[in-house]
Amino acid sequence: MPTIGGRRLVARIETWPVAGSFVIARGAKTQVDVVVVEISEAGHRGRGEATAIYYHGESAESVLAQAETMADAIAGGIGREDLLRAMPRGAARNAIDAALWDIDAKRTSRPAWSLAGLAEPMPVQSAFTISLGEPERMEADARAAASVYPLLKLKLAGEGDIDRVAAVRRGAPEARLIVDANEGWTGRDVVAEAAALLPYGVELIEQPVRVGEDHLLDGLRSPIPLCADESCQDRADLARCVGRYQAINIKLDKAGGLTEALALAVEARSLGLELMVGCMLSTSLGIAPAILAAQQARWVDIDGPLLLAADRDDPVRFDRGVAYPARPSLWG
């Protein structure tokens, strides 16, 4: 890539196999393609990883191409705040933003949390995802997972969801449960569906209706908090969430990086919204900065590396679903 200043950007696509398959209402995945950005300067190297937001029409190839267009800007010394104005939200900006945090942490010998003006991060309890399937399969998966993970997130689809949640509760009677409707409750009685989940101890319902149809939630009083996922990407989306959702799910790939994610968290909390921090399928390189964003979150779902058949040589450490911050900087 061209270099006109002190920093050099290179990017590539890597393919990582999923452990078994990862199934949601939109389909199954047996592997994930991630885009890795590296920024080097004076013997230091910063790395960032991003996963394409498929429901935005992104692909690994389009994310790679978009990241590579920023090579001259990186060489010219563009910083994280200017990057917010120079690039649209999305996975490409996330990968570059993460690499900038990483190289600045290494260059200054200061942890990324310190550069961000945050307190030293603490371990966070992450959910473990139970893929969408027939109730019997989800029950068996939940039974196996609950021996290790105290918080489970269930992928739902609409028809038959109550049976799925009931089956999971049979398999994991002591686990905490959150569910992701993946827009599958559009056209259904959201309040009635939520009320039917109350006996199973469900704490949160993600994205019950399709993006753009959030007005269907106007005036509803769900007995379980509703969380905007696809309906909330960055700060520009907060206005349509207030009064309809009680929480938002922050994902670095959606928001376009940790810089925007931290600002989004502050503004969302000021508006009375609870926080969830989630992830796409990814390795530990993509998860490490999310731990910083997750420090103030009520719910955390950053199990991307746990769903892969293998992880990086320098993984985020998980113990019973608890993710421990990487040290001394975000990526070692």
UniProtKB/TrEMBL annotation:
UniProt-recorded Gene Ontology molecular function terms: metal ion binding; racemase and epimerase activity, acting on amino acids and derivatives
EC number, UniProt record: 5.1.1.-
Signal sequence annotation: none
Family matches, as SUPFAM superfamilies: Enolase C-terminal domain-like, Enolase N-terminal domain-like
Gene3D superfamilies, alphabetized: Enolase-like C-terminal domain (3.20.20.120), Enolase-like, N-terminal domain (3.30.390.10)
Short name of any one Pfam family annotated for the protein: MR_MLE_N
Transmembrane segments: none
Cofactor(s) listed in the protein's UniProt record: Mg(2+)
InterPro entries, A to Z: DgoD-like (IPR034593), Dipeptide_epimerase (IPR034603), Enolase-like_C_sf (IPR036849), Enolase-like_N (IPR029017), Enolase_C-like (IPR029065), Mandelate_racemase_C (IPR013342), Mandelate_racemase_N_dom (IPR013341)
Mandelate racemase/muconate lactonizing enzyme C-terminal domain residues: 135-227
Residues the record lists as binding Mg(2+): D180, E206, D229
Residue numbers annotated as active site: K155 (proton acceptor), K251 (proton acceptor)
Keywords carried by this UniProt record: Isomerase, Magnesium, Metal-binding
Record's cofactor remark: Binds 1 Mg(2+) ion per subunit.
NCBIfam families assigned: racemase_DgcA
Protein name: Dipeptide epimerase
Organism annotation: Rhizorhabdus histidinilytica
Taxonomic lineage: Bacteria, Pseudomonadati, Pseudomonadota, Alphaproteobacteria, Sphingomonadales
